[in-house]
Queue: 2 jobs
Job 1
Amino acid sequence: MNKLKAFGFILLGIAMILIPYQLMQPDDSVIYTDRFLTAPFDDDQVLITSAGQSTDTYIVQDAANSIRLNNLFMPEASSNDLSDVSAMIIVIGYSQMGLSLNDRTFSDEYDRVNSLLQSNQASLPVVAVYLGGSLRRNKQTDQLLELVASKSDVLISVTDTNDDYIQYLIGHYDLSYMILDKLNNLSKPLASIFR
Amino acid sequence: MKKSTLYTISAALLIIIGIYWPSGIANSLFDIIVHIRFAIHTGDGGTLITDAMWLCVLFSIPNILIFMGLDLLRQHFKVLKSSWWRYMIFTFLFAALKIIPAIIFHQSIEILSAFLGVIFTLFLIHITHYVKHATLPHVIIAFQVFFLMEWLNVMPAFSRYHLGYSDISVSLKIASGYLDNVSTINAIGLSFVAVLTVSSLMTAIIFRLYVQNLAIVEENYANALAFESIQTKMMNNRVYQEINVLAHDLKTPLATVRGLSSLLVLTKDLKKLEDYGNRIDQAVIKMSDMISGFLYGSSRQWTEVEALINYVRSQIPLETDHIVLSFEMKEDLPPIYINKIRLARAIVNVISNAMIAPNTIEEKRIIIEAKAAAQSVLITIEDNGMGIAPADLDRIWTIGYSSNNTSGLGLPFAKQTVEENEGSITIDSKVGVGTIVTITIPIQPKETEHEKENTNH
């Protein structure tokens, strides 16, 4: 057996041992927040919109519905849609497929979100939600994160051991925040944020 | 169309389809996004699993197509020998054909899993050791490997290894995390990965065994052809030996003709002249028959058994003190339709074998008997030699086989000659007792007067 085959078989053997072992390791489980809201937000009607058109927006909608949070779900909300809402939840996550489905480009989406935030004259509370962890991190998502975090009051995110960027945003914009260990616990921070 | 052109066109088509595929399946990918949204809304984790499988199929197909296109080109340009640098070039070309179109056409691809897939596939192809055109096995291996690699993209457990970072894979994993479906997708994905890894390995190993067996069969076939060629040459040499014997036998009637010719010159008696002329004529006829009998192996005439046996007696090497030959012939044996010259040589070969076969007692007795049986004439050659072991009996007709340091051609020649005369030859032997060779010649009905005129006395 020549060296190439021997090397290949050794790699395969290591992979067949390591992979099941890794899969059996428990996920990291961290919940922390040390910047609490002074008071919960009014929950008359909360606008749930997207920044990037990812499917994560639908997760937030489902979580909101599960706690009977009165919400107006408009992934492509514009400044005209702010009149009857008491707060905004903006779900950040760039999705090329999501934008293509709505026949939009990234710059269109950025402009829409920027306009939405700029037209928030009533200073409605803004909750930024980022559920993508390190998976959705890319240049476009970071731009949207920066944009939304700069105008937000609270950031909800998920734990990710390599995601220092979220920590940077929290510190830089002095945000209250909640970091989730598991996505299916999303309803809890939403329930605590909205009365 | 030339084969080379067909190969090139097929390879180009496969590569082009593989490059365009991610752009062409946009609607299918949109459907998956819609299904993910639906699954989140309904809490149906099963939809995510179905979409995961469908995504694996959609993302593995372009990899398989591009790989097959490059593999066809590799086979066509005969770049089949395995080496590090050839595999690296192949991998580099594959990566280029994935990355460049993705950048130009803004396609969603999973480059890391595709890269791992091509490396593992090349490794398995290397195991097969196949150096000729082998499209189908490569397709089977490539399909299994690339499909299992795509499962790594949709399993949340492998995200930590930077696998599955395309838009849809990420959406699928995040949605499965929300629906608490992570362990289910991991378990199903691991099942596919484990099974397909073993299956692709087994495919490569089985194909390698097939290649080895094929090589052995080809080698055996070549050896058999060479052996058959040698056997044919040996038999041809045997025929030349028989021709030598014939040439030797022709000297006797030639001597007769010469002697009688010289007498013709000396005598003036008309009766003697007539007698000498008749005897010269008979000698010439005899020579003509001998030559015809050998030139035309299939040429047969009606022959009395006694004439055959007498001809055999004239051909036998001289008896020694320790070998006693006896001839026994039943009366009223019917004539047989044979080539007398060649059949006589066949019988002489059998007798010669009996003469040289070792024996345990001092005096060897060889009995040649001719008798009638049902619809046939039996000519038996019986000796009191050492006999032939049962294991050797099966091989005794094989060209080149000999237990007495002879050429091993006599008995096969005899068998061939007897069968040419529609007869059969069998050997019955007991070790320590002796051997009986039985030549059976069928009695044919005499159909025409013309055939009767050919009866040779």
Job 2
Amino acid sequence: MTEKVTDEMLMAFVDGELDADAADDVRRAMAADPSLERRADSFRTSRELAREAFGKVIAETVPERLVTSVMARGSGEGASASRPGKFRTAVPIAAAVALAAGLGGYLLGQIGTPGDTQILGGPVLAQAVGDTLSGEQRSIRVDGQEVSVSVLATYAVEGGLCRTFEATPAVSDAVRGVGCRFGETWHIEVAVAMPDTTGFAPAGAGGVASLDAYLDALGAEGPLGPDEEARRQ
Amino acid sequence: MGAEGHEHGKGMNVDIRPAMVALLPRLRAFAHALARSGDGADDLVQATCEKALRAVDSWTPGTRLDSWMFRIMQNHWIDTTRRERPEVQLDTVLALESAGEDGRRVVEAKLTLGSVGRAIEAMPEDQRAVLVLVCVEDLSYREAADVLDVPIGTVMSRLARARRTIFEAAGPQSKPRSRPGGTG
């Protein structure tokens, strides 16, 4: 390329912000000029340094007063004029703290990624989790997209029933999560992107382990056997 | 607002509270970029969550909850510090200086101790905010620009400056640990 490669172009290249053509241009320029690679490296390094500097803040256990200020709002129970039946009881504070401590900066926080919330936030997936027994799988359609839903296990918890599931949309990353029924309807309570998607370091395995912490905090014991599950279904 | 049966945090029948709780660590990180002190950061997070819960109906399911909340936090921070900002910054500078003179004073070690942490704390807030949104919260340049309500070019120039600063502060540095071939 004839124009000089600026720092900002190198930075954008390193951050994956350039389109394919522009990225190719930069690669060609870097092949011809080793000093560009050094400058690009400085941007990779500074990105890591920033993440490390804030890693401690992200990994800290969240002060309980923050969790309480979010979860203790609202009446938690009560009938809706527009929906028959009760809203489920508010998530117990202990469960919410397990959520925050374990999941940290994981992708769960991005409920609202285009596509994901349509899938995770809507009633179709929640109902599918409710209708599917442990070890079974079904396909659903959400917003025109095909999603494969597998239920992993079912647990009795304080005040209701929960299921761990994996939802794999056709064109985006799989999520693993917990759906629960505390009253009459099932809701998706928490979900994490599967470990091989991009997420905040360290690797996403901790996010999946935190689904267990969430269930523990709700008082789940072992997974239910098929007879017990059928009884509670 | 106040429709019968409409509950706090449950806009359009989506309860965002569990997702919000899971976001708290990341909200604290951005709050720390703005407020710097640990208590100030947590106060900012709490105020942001309260505002977000009240305004839940203005969040569109399908859009990023984290970006939406970062935006609320940024706006709230500007609103509450605009009057006080010169004094706030001065106090913080003095605190950092006096902590340096008395070697035994414990500085809130929220960031990595050392030159990088100090450089981040000392840089202009505008640069620190962009640095955290892009490099720690993994927002794209476009998303960071939307949160901060500035053009993308501004995000890039602040980001480049911030990163040059911390790279220099780190001193003789080895190669980065990971080398994802920058993709387009």
